[in-house]
């Protein structure tokens, strides 16, 4: 039982590593809550790598499907010439068809985007990460467009026309294909991009802290290591051997520091001056009109009420008058603090997730005048009904907790 607990933690640590690598850069405020080591010991496991089946062979079909979603076109790189990478200043876009005086509500706007390098030469391969949007500032409206990589330097952008009124196409280069190539190379070749601290605790309370990682070499640890194996995936986790405590006295982790994994050239490709930049406006504002004989302003299909498990169309919805409209289901809106309170009255809401969800918790805390509990302070797994009632809140006062979803996510 104790051993299984330990391995669960390791599995979660590995999942969290991937999570960190993928998302950390987009969430500068990402969760790095340090919790004191918990009570789960992790046992040392002798290395028997030849006996376990290869990781990829035992993957279920679902994971194979997921990896196929990660498909990205080849990114040949710039051959060392920064100016041969895709530029947000010289890339252009135009309407696929002839311009029209007005566009019909419910139609599709098609746009051709031509990627160019800093010299202005058209690119001959794809792999750039462009992002398209249609915005209606007067209607406080916006919808994302679908960008299809034709893999020859051009991209086909399709944007649904979902509201009546003025609209403006906006195109951004998030990362050049050369920058994507850098990220992909690091993802494939560098097993570790951050390091971790491992906390060990002895029977008599002695505590020791060492460096841990998925790869013992990338952190420069010399000398003996403790090695742990995930029973499900077979993946390994290493910690430097603590000075006096045994390997099985590992009780917890926290995030350490970033490792140096990029060259100067890589950094220039990923620098702020070429990242998430607007392209010069390529299409004048368009006007969307209602379909003949219809007096509607939004193109919304008949939708069932929202419930969990619904498949999400692309795009999943849009904003109009600052309100989100799902294209798969009809939801309710809670525009005022009173309406939020009315919905939450007498309820206890547990938000279990990452920093994206924590932002919802913070939004509620700042929007609704009521006594909210700080989510981080509480481990709500241990919270029972009696505890909730004992806190002396007025009857009907909602309580909203947020906490990280996994043990390891509090690294
Ligand atoms: C994997 O994808 C195939 C084809 O899209 C689908 O038929 C199958 O149900 C998927 N399997 C799982 C486990 O998601
Ligand atoms: C890119 O590919 C698309 C689709 O195959 C084709 O229509 C278009 O002409 C090509 N563009 C260039 C510049 O080769
Ligand atoms: C972006 O900034 C880097 C230095 O931070 C510089 O080397 C590079 O030339 C700049 N790129 C462009 C396109 O201005």
| Distance separating the two termini | 23 Å
Number of strands: 19
Query: Total helix count?
Result: 7
Cα radius of gyration in angstroms? 26 Å
What fraction strand?
Answer: 25-35%
Helicity range: 10-25%
Low-confidence stretches: 1-53, 374-395, 406-411
Kindly state the mean pLDDT as a whole number?
79
Element string (H = helix, E = strand)? HHEEEEEEEEHEEEEEHEEEEHEHHE
The hetero compounds bound to this protein are:
2-acetamido-2-deoxy-beta-D-glucopyranose
Give the biggest beta sheet.
6 strands, mixed
Helix/strand-derived category reads alpha+beta
Shape, per Cα inertia axes? flat
Describe this structure in words.
- This protein is 19% helix and 26% strand.
- Strand 9 and strand 10 (207-213) form a beta hairpin.
- Strands 2, 4, 5, 8, 14 and 15 form a six-stranded mixed beta sheet that branches. It has a five-stranded antiparallel beta sheet with strand order 11-12-10-9-13. A four-stranded antiparallel beta sheet has the order 1-3-7-6, with no helix packed on it.
- The chain is built from seven helices and 19 strands.
- Among the domains are: 2-70 and 191-260, no CATH class; 334-410, no CATH class.
- It binds 2-acetamido-2-deoxy-beta-D-glucopyranose (3 copies).
């Amino acid at each position: 039982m104790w051993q299984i607990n330990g391995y669960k933690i390791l599995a979660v640590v590995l999942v969290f590593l991937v999570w960190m690598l993928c998302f950390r850069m987009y969430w500068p405020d990402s969760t790095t809550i340090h919790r004191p080591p918990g009570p789960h010991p992790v046992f040392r496991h002798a290395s028997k790598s030849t006996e376990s089946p290869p990781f990829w062979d035992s993957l279920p079909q679902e994971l194979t499907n997921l990896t196929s979603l990660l498909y990205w076109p080849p990114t040949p790189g710039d051959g060392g010439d920064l100016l041969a990478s895709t530029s947000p200043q010289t890339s252009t876009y135009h309407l696929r068809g002839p311009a029209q005086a007005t566009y019909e509500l419910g139609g599709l706007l098609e746009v051709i985007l031509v990627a160019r390098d800093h010299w202005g030469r058209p690119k001959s391969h794809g792999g750039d990460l462009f992002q398209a949007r249609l915005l209606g500032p007067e209607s406080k409206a916006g919808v994302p467009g679908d960008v299809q990589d034709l893999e020859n330097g051009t991209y086909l952008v399709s944007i649904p026309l979902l509201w009546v009124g003025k609209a403006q196409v906006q195109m951004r280069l998030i990362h050049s294909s050369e920058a994507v190539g850098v990220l992909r190379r690091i993802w494939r070749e560098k097993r570790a991009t951050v390091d971790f601290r491992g906390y060990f605790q002895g029977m008599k309370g002695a505590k020791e802290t060492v460096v841990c990682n998925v790869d013992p070499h990338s952190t420069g640890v010399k000398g003996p290591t403790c090695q742990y194996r995930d029973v499900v995936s077979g993946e390994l986790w290493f910690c430097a051997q603590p000075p006096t405590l045994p390997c099985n006295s590992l009780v917890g982790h926290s995030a350490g520091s970033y490792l140096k994994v990029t060259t100067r050239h890589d950094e220039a490709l990923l620098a702020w001056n070429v990242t998430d930049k607007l392209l010069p406006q390529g299409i004048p504002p368009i006007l969307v009109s209602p379909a003949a004989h219809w007096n509607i302003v939004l193109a919304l299909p008949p939708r069932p009420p929202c419930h969990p498990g619904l498949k999400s169309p692309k795009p999943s919805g849009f904003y109009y008058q600052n309100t989100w409209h799902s294209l798969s289901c009809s939801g309710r809106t809670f525009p005022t603090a009173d309406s939020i309170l009315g919905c939450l009255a007498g309820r206890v809401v547990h938000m279990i997730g990452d920093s994206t969800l924590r932002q919802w918790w913070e939004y509620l805390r700042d929007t609704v005048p009521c006594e909210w509990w700080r989510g981080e302070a509480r481990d709500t797994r241990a919270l029972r009904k009696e505890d909730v009632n004992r806190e002396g809140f007025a009857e009907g006062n909602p309580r909203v907790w947020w906490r990280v979803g996994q043990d390891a996510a509090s690294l």
